[in-house]
Design brief:
The protein is of the alpha/beta class and about 500 residues long. It has helices at about 15-25, 50-60, 75-90, 110-120, 140-150, 165-175, 195-205, 220-225, 265-270, 295-330, 360-370, 400-415, 420-430, 440-445, 460-470, 470-485, and strands at about 100-105, 130-135, 150-155, 180-185, 210-215, 245, 260-265, 275, 285, 335-340, 345-350, 375, 385-390. The strands form three sheets. Strands 1-7-6-5-4-2-3 form a seven-stranded mixed beta sheet, with helices on both faces. A four-stranded antiparallel beta sheet has the order 10-11-13-12. α5 (about 140-150) links the parallel β2 (about 130-135) and β3. The chain starts with 15 loop residues before the first helix and ends in a 5-residue tail after the last helix. The structure holds pyridoxal-5'-phosphate. The site of pyridoxal-5'-phosphate (PLP) has 13 residues, from α4. Its cofactor is pyridoxal 5'-phosphate.
């Protein structure tokens, strides 16, 4: 039976008005993308009119195809302008130490990183089993790139206090098969800037490319420096840095679907391309993973950058930094909480120092009060933590959040820590990923209330505690199975 009320392909088309109403109704289930109450996933500058502008620009170019820049020069022009802007912000362009910088517009940070790894791998075809060296704090997208491209990942452990790798350890991890050394500016999890200068130096000494993952906060770091915040060198000003990624759909406040991958020169970029003429169809040359791609995100990003302008970003960064400092003070002001790292970018990361204050319960208590934060599991000696991505829209709300945080902490203490039923705890500790049957997962998901309800679950502490108790391979299997259960077609 087709559910005519919600089928994506109803027997008879429904009116534009009705279908838009349906989408708005569905959107009502989502976390709030605007208003500074969601500290992950979304980046809100809180600038009136910007959404409307970006949507109009998107609509202008939605049907333009990035497959062929000669057929659609509008897209080529906007892409080249975006790459130029990103290179400028990150220390490249005329009159800098990277005057020959080039780049590509990709669909997101993950695609930028996959392509940085691909370019590095394909520049060294003589290496049979290529390897990439990253700090353990590097974004998971490097692991995805390694997985997709059959490259080995060498993760360098972090110093538990500085949350950075020791440069000597990075140097030692560079084997003869290494094609790329990467680092973050800043890391997503903790917002910490890696020692880029020293890492680039050891990479260069070994004759290996060095990628700076500035996807999250590289854009803002440049502006923070201009505001007088101490920011170590992390961009093309650093000798040995061969490529940098920066997500325009993060702190450049563009709608989703735009990142830039920069290379110091065109020679370094060349192995990123894929060209194919050995078939009877059109000759194909792709700088990025997608072939057909919409001009919508590119036009929207172009409109966003031009409308906000350099002075706009400086002002948004000033507001964001004030919010970061106020949030850090709020954390310091709550007994039993501490900052995992002193903020040096636009992340505030906190943890609990009190066994009676369960961080996952705190997250739920904040959710119940309308504040959505991101829990991070304990990992390799690092404690559980809560991540806050801070954007300009948070600035007017920091006092309110401070009150909510104190109340949520009191609420979490009153509720007490999650105690998993012993059989569940034993299961998490002993189960191998192979032993996890679809039926077991379905029962588990049902018991945890994860399926068959509209909207995000309100109480996630038990699920997070279960994942936290499980070894990494089991965590991964559980995640795949849980999400696989959610992703079922509706008929
Ligand atoms: C967000 C992020 C990525 C991945 O970007 P997506 O746009 O989500 O694909 C990579 N690296 C860092 C540091 C990030 O913050």
């Amino acid at each position: 039976m087709i559910d005519e009320d919600r089928a994506a392909l109803p027997a008879h088309g429904v009116s534009a008005e009705r279908v838009l109403g349906e989408i708005r109704e569905l959107r009502g289930l989502d976390r709030p993308t605007h208003g500074g109450r969601l500290f992950a996933y979304v980046y809100d500058p809180g600038v009136a009119g910007l959404d409307e502008l970006a949507a109009a620009a998107y609509a202008e170019s939605a049907h333009v195809n990035g497959l062929d820049p000669t057929a659609f020069p509008s897209l080529l022009a906007m892409e080249n302008a975006l790459v130029g802007a990103a290179a400028r912000v990150l220390g490249g362009g005329p009159g800098t130490s990277a005057p020959e910088a080039v780049g590509s517009v990709t669909s997101g940070g993950t695609e930028s990183l996959i392509l940085a790894v691909k370019a590095a791998r394909d520049a060294r075809p003589e290496i049979d089993a290529p390897r990439v060296v990253v700090p353990a704090s590097a974004h998971a997208a490097f692991a995805k790139a390694a997985h997709y491209l059959r490259v080995e990942l060498d993760a360098v452990p972090l110093d538990p206090v500085t949350l950075r790798p020791a440069v000597a350890d990075v140097a030692a991890a560079i084997r003869p098969e290494a094609v790329l050394v990467a680092c973050s500016a800043p890391s997503y999890a903790h917002g910490v800037v890696d020692p880029v200068e020293q890492i680039a130096q050891v990479a260069a000494a070994a004759g290996v490319r060095c990628h700076v993952d500035a996807c999250f906060g590289g854009w803002t770091l440049s502006y923070l420096r201009r505001l007088g915040v101490p920011v170590p060198a992390f961009d093309f000003a650093v000798p040995g840095v061969t490529s940098i990624s920066v997500d325009l759909h993060k702190y450049a406040y563009a709608p989703k679907g735009v990142s830039v991958l920069l290379h110091r020169d065109a020679g370094l970029r060349a192995p990123q391309y894929f060209a194919y003429a050995d078939w009877p169809g059109y000759t194909m040359v792709n700088p990025v993973i997608s072939s057909t791609r919409s001009g919508g995100p590119i036009a929207a990003a172009y409109a966003t950058l031009r409308h906000l302008g350099d002075d706009g970003y400086l002002e948004l960064t000033r507001r964001t930094w004030a919010a970061v400092r106020a949030l850090a003070d709020a954390v310091r002001g709550v007994d039993g909480l501490r900052l995992v790292a002193e903020p040096e970018s636009t992340v505030v990361c906190l943890t609990s120092t009190d066994p009676d204050l369960d961080l996952f319960v705190l997250v739920d208590e904040l959710t119940a009060r309308g504040w959505h934060t991101q829990p991070q599991l304990a990992y390799a000696g690092l404690p559980r933590s809560v991540h806050l991505t801070v954007t300009a829209a948070v600035a007017p709300r920091v006092a309110e959040f401070g009150t909510a945080l104190a109340e949520a902490a009191a609420g979490a203490r009153a509720t007490g820590p999650v105690v998993l039923p012993p059989e569940l705890l034993a299961l998490a500790g002993s189960l191998t990923p192979q032993a996890l049957t679809p039926q077991l997962v379905a029962e588990l998901a049902d018991g945890l209330g994860l399926v068959g309800r509209p909207g995000p679950p309100d109480r996630m502490a038990v699920v997070n505690t279960l994942l936290d108790a499980a070894p990494v391979p089991l965590r991964e299997r559980l995640l795949v199975e849980f999400v696989g259960l959610l992703q079922r077609p509706t008929w």
